[in-house]
TrEMBL record:
Protein name per its UniProtKB record: TOBE domain-containing protein
Topological relation to the membrane, as annotated: Peripheral membrane protein
Organism: Methanoculleus nereidis
Transmembrane segments annotated in the record for this chain: none
Entry-linked SUPFAM superfamilies: MOP-like (SSF50331)
InterPro entries, per database record: Mo/tungstate-bd_C_term_dom, Mop_domain, Transp-assoc_OB_typ1
Mop domain segment(s): 2-68
Amino acid sequence: MKVSARNQLPGKVTKIEQGMILVEITIELDGGGELVSVITKGAVENLGLAVGKKVYAVVKSTEVMVATD
């Protein structure tokens, strides 16, 4: 698979929390840290997501905000 997004973060699924329509997927990144994504139930089924599955968090954005305390 090739995608245009430069930010492709490998990791594995550590938690799947089902909602009525959307599902919250927690990914433990290979480089450390954790990322949470909210996707549809259909996407979870199409991707065959399960806890322990290796995935890529793909981030494509036209804007990234930076904040400080």
